[in-house]
UniProtKB/TrEMBL annotation, chain A:
The gene is xylH_3. This is Xylose transport system permease protein XylH. InterPro entries: ABC_transp_permease. It is found in: Cell membrane. Keywords: Cell membrane, Membrane, Transmembrane, Transmembrane helix. CDD domains: TM_PBP1_transp_AraH_like (cd06579). It is a multi-pass membrane protein.
Automatic annotation (TrEMBL), chain B:
SMART domains: AAA. This is Ribose import ATP-binding protein RbsA. The lineage of its organism: Bacteria, Pseudomonadati, Pseudomonadota, Alphaproteobacteria, Rhodobacterales. Its EC number is 3.6.3.17. It comes from the Bacteria. GO terms for molecular function: ATP binding; ATP hydrolysis activity. InterPro entries: AAA+_ATPase, ABC_carbohydrate_import_ATPase, ABC_transporter-like_ATP-bd, ABC_transporter-like_CS, P-loop_NTPase. PROSITE patterns: ABC_TRANSPORTER_1, ABC_TRANSPORTER_2. Residues 11-247 form the ABC transporter domain.
Length: 333, 250
């Protein structure tokens, strides 16, 4: 009797692609459904003016969401980004009011953001305190510092045309903040997928012990991603100050939730190791479109908070249940 | 080897002691492994096998005793020190990153870069060589490790440790979770690594594996090395008696 052996064929590349990109494809589809819905429901949604407005408003969220994607890929979280934005926003206004040249102020604020982020990263990576606790403390401390500095007042910024251009200007009709945000997103995608640093971030998120054993700088990698959110929050705080022409300790309240929602909606796993910056961009735009569309439909602005929260819950649910292998709607017997 | 001189052991341990609090995990262990030799390390749970290999791989620092690599005294304080002496370890949990592809895992921690960008083309060519050198068949280098079978994952972990000119390769339970054909493949892999002059320390509970790859078997009991046997001069039942502490009867 003869025995025949056959080799398993390599599966179709398309099937692999679909499994691999299921998350991004589903958020892309959800985004298009939202756009379609608001286009039909309102007259003004699909006009160039409104779309550019959405981009301008979404820019600070997108910038911080790019950095947050790195943090969440390492299985961390940064709850303090809203407070960091407020602190930078208020500090920038206070220092500009003293007459310091604006490029210097921008540089100083970027350094401040990086330093705050690195400080939190040190506690998380080198002292082993959970990111949730460190950044929750940061959320309180940094917002408190902003309130203390401004005593709760809004600080006006006057006659700094170059600085205002960052928040209000356009290049070829496209708002400058949107261009900055898209450039940062493109840079982030390049670093994450093609660079050694991106590989280290994914490795640390996927299996921190393995990364340590093969000699990767695991602790530094973890600390550094919080420096990225600090830096990104500083950029966002500056853009908000430049757009509104004032600095306020009450800026960006609830900002961290929008950022985290955008990242998770984009398919980045809260358990670390897996994430996509294209997904983050689509997630951010989806949240911005929903916020904008609901307002255009004359629905209470408070309602958008309910929607944002619901989206986070549903996205995480999908993230943990449906996009794992061998999912079936049927009950296991 | 020049005639008349005996080659120094690849690694020589003398009087290794290590305590964790009041527990003496190792109570003075001596062990020699010659170049190209495979030593099986067996013993009951908590006999000190893993502690000993972790000292050799630099994860733990011994309280007392000396380590010599190729006749030269060394002192390891971190895994990187052991790596610098070309000592590689394949861990029981494999230490692979599920979210990174086969190629990325093979080069984990040793990525080839060009201006800080991953040099995927060069790594891919080298990864093909690494796998075909050890006769490992994984068709798609871009498959995520999570999609692979236990044997393939094991093969990747071994290929990673074996491909960067190790002088000593330590394997902790490489066959414990594998199916029959996969065990055979891993044992063949160990023999191929040995044939290239690499010394191997193999920890296993599957005693029958020892007879296929090991030259020498060291039995540990309660933190000491109680016996050392040449593989061709021992039997399975003798090893079992030595492990459970009834060696006096022999």
């Amino acid at each position: 009797m003869s025995v025949t052996y056959t080799e398993r064929k390599t599966g179709s590349a398309l099937a692999d692609f679909l499994t691999e990109k299921a998350q991004v494809l589903s958020i892309a589809a959800f985004f298009l459904i939202c756009v379609l819905f608001f286009t039909l429901a309102t007259d003004v949604f699909l006009t160039a003016g409104n779309l550019l407005n959405i981009l301008r408003q979404a820019a600070p969220i997108l910038i911080v969401a790019v950095a947050m994607t790195f943090v969440i890929i390492t299985a961390g979280i940064d709850l303090s980004v809203g407070s960091q934005v407020a602190l930078v926003n208020a500090s920038a206004a206070l220092i500009l009011a003293m007459g310091v040249p604006w490029p210097l102020v921008v540089l100083a604020m970027l350094l401040l953001g990086a330093a705050i982020g690195l400080g939190q990263g040190w506690f998380i990576a080198y002292q082993g305190i959970p990111a949730f606790i460190v950044t929750l403390a940061g959320l309180s401390i940094l917002r408190g510092a902003a309130l203390y500095m401004t005593q709760g007042y809004s600080i006006p910024i006057r006659d700094v045309a170059g600085f205002f251009w960052l928040g209000r200007g356009t290049i070829l009709d496209i708002p400058v903040p949107a261009l900055i945000a898209l450039a940062i997103a493109a840079l982030g995608a390049l670093v994450l997928s093609r660079q050694l640093y991106g590989r280290q971030v994914v490795a640390v998120g996927s299996n921190p012990e393995a990364a340590r054993r093969v000699g990767m700088p695991a602790k530094w990698t973890i600390a550094s991603v919080y420096m990225l959110t600090g830096l990104a929050s500083a950029v966002a705080g500056l853009l908000i100050a430049a757009r509104l022409g004032s600095g306020s300790s009450n800026a960006a309240v609830g900002f961290e939730l929008q950022v985290i929602a955008a990242v998770v909606l984009g398919g980045t796993s809260l358990f670390g190791g897996r994430g996509s910056l294209l997904g983050t961009v689509l997630g951010t735009l989806t949240i911005a479109v929903i916020g904008n569309g609901l307002i255009l439909m004359h629905i209470s602005p408070f309602f958008t908070q309910i929607v944002t929260g619901t989206i986070i819950l549903v996205a995480i649910w999908l993230n943990t249940r449906i996009f794992t292998a061998n999912f079936s709607f049927k009950r296991k017997t | 080897m020049p005639s008349g001189e005996t080659e120094p052991p690849r690694i020589a341990l003398r009087g290794i002691r290590k305590s964790f609090g009041s527990i003496e995990a190792l109570r003075g262990v001596d062990l020699d492994v010659m170049p190209g030799e495979c030593v099986g390390l067996i013993g009951d749970n908590a006999a000190g096998k893993s502690t000993l290999t972790k000292i050799i791989s630099g994860t733990y620092v011994a309280d007392a005793g000396t380590i010599a690599v190729d006749g030269e005294q060394v002192r390891f304080t971190a895994p990187a020190d052991a790596r610098a002496h070309h000592i590689e370890m394949v861990f029981q949990d494999l230490s692979l990153c599920d979210h990174i592809d086969v190629m990325g895992n093979l080069f984990l921690g040793r990525e080839m870069t060009r201006w800080s960008f991953l040099d995927n083309r060069r790594m891919k060519a080298r990864a093909r060589e690494m796998l075909s050198d050890l006769d490992i068949r994984i068709p798609n280098l871009h498959a995520k490790v999570a999609q692979l079978s236990g044997g393939q994952r094991q093969a990747i972990a071994i290929a990673r440790a074996a491909s960067f000119q190790p002088r000593l390769l330590i394997m902790d339970e490489p066959t414990s979770a594998l199916a029959v054909a996969e065990v055979e493949a891993v044992l063949r892999l160990i023999n191929r690594v040995k044939a290239r002059g690499v010394s191997v320390i193999l920890i296993t509970h599957r005693l029958q594996d020892l007879f296929e790859v090991c030259d020498k078997i060291a039995v540990m009991y309660e933190g000491t090395k109680v016996a050392e046997r040449e593989t061709r001069r021992t039997q399975l039942d003798e090893l079992v008696k030595l492990i459970v502490g009834k060696g006096e009867a022999i």
